[in-house]
Design goal:
Bound molecules: zinc ion
Structural class: alpha/beta
Number of helices: 22
Shape: globular
Number of strands: 19
Radius of gyration: 25 Å
Strand content: 15-25%
Length: 550
Amino acid sequence: MIRLFYFISFFAICEISFAQTKPKPAISNSLKQPKLVIGIVVDQMRQDYIYRYWNKFGNGGFKKLINEGFFYKNAHFNYVPTYTGPGHASIYTGTSPATHGIIANDWYDKETNSVVYCTDDKDAKTIGSESKAGLMSPKKLLTTTIGDELKINSNQRSKVFAVSLKDRSSILPAGHSANGAFWFDGSVGKFISSSHYMKTLPTWLNDFNNLQLPKHYLSQGWKTLYPLNTYLESISDNNNYEQAPNKKDTAIFPYNYKSQLDINNFDILRATPFGNTITKDIALACLKSEQLGKGNETDMLCISFSSTDYVGHSYGPRSVEIEDVYLRLDKDLEELLNYIDANIGKQNVVVFLTADHGACDVPAHLMDMKIPGGYINEAELAKTIKTFCFNQFKDSLVNGMKNQQLFLNEPKMASLNLNKFSVEHTLANYLLTIKGVAESYPSDVLKYENYTEGSFKSLIQKGYNHVRSGNVAFSYNPAWMEYHSKGTTHGASYSYDTHVPLLFYGMDIKHGSTVNKVNIVDIAPTVSMMLHISFPNGTTGKPLLDVIDK
Ligand SMILES: [Zn+2]
């Protein structure tokens, strides 16, 4: 007690002498908060794209964020599977699927013995169209987001919105208590929402939809921004590793969308650079109409650019198409940053930019270069495992296989007097005999062991939710995947899928960069520190204080 008294007295004396020599700063100064937070996620953006396209980027987009902001060059996801749903959830909740519960885009649900989607909600209604594309909500997300904490902290005075082509890329960043999340309904070519957020679309969004921008953009077709022969960062436009999104057209420039427009197929917009441009358009419309950053509380806008992912899946990371999408996205970013600088001010805003996952090179391309890679047929794999179970345990036992996890029929195992853990261990060992499988883990190992941070094993563990995940989890060798031989995917624990850019820009953010490894789950606690609000309630990441100037 005496010690505590001296301790308090010491600070009291310091405070008095400080107060005598220098006026006490106003409280509002010491708690200066940005007026607006903008989170930007570029779907499937590998970290190396920054360098590959650097010489072609303008000064106002990616380069502005790096030249004036802080660049974490070695930022990674710390779990598998590296998919869009878990990626967006982890960025905005500061934790991994083990805690926030979004274990994949869709997963096998043990209760209903069916596959469920991360944001589907049969109790919700579509707002803005007659389709089912709005039967969505964030109810499967088990924790709060940065936006939720802003709402709690401000007694709901902060405004929080999210926009994206993809439903999950809008809903999961927005969180539970947002004012609105909007996404694209290709069946009508409009942005819609769900009854989770609102009863009707805001007037500004109806006006925006009435502009019919999808038709306007698609009618232009897609030609390269610069002459084709200058795309030296990419492989030849005509190659064996690409597939047009509709699986019919040849995957070479120029692209013409007349036939799709004739049948009002606006979903084609997703796999074009115009999907990003319209996302920028709706982001600007939302900023202006909702007066974000103009009130007394900090507002938030979450923007996710999805076309990079659709184009990446179809054409792969070495294609002219993906290069052109990034060069055009750079211009969209420039327009967005110019608006923010001119209308809200760099000193009033915090912007961060990252990705939800990376992407693997097309394995067929790697193999043609004598680099290891391969393809798995998961339907065949499931059959092989069921046959093994039948021979070994007199029953196929496997209820489902999804996201490299096996879901076993536990009541059946009990009725056959089979020990659950011994069956899981037998299956984990059997999986290792299959070509392309790298590692496998029975559930007890993932539940009761504690793996070292950063090891491949820890990535599986951090993606493993004790209630929702399966009985056995496994992974493939690097550059092995279940996919067509044209195009590519993501989802693995390897650096091509985990390594993404992480940029901060704006108020009190110093200029600099680091190659120290940081985790994507560190973003949310960092932003929370900048806003002086509580962390999202499941946060396991730590604040990145070297980004903050003081
Ligand atoms: Zn994807």
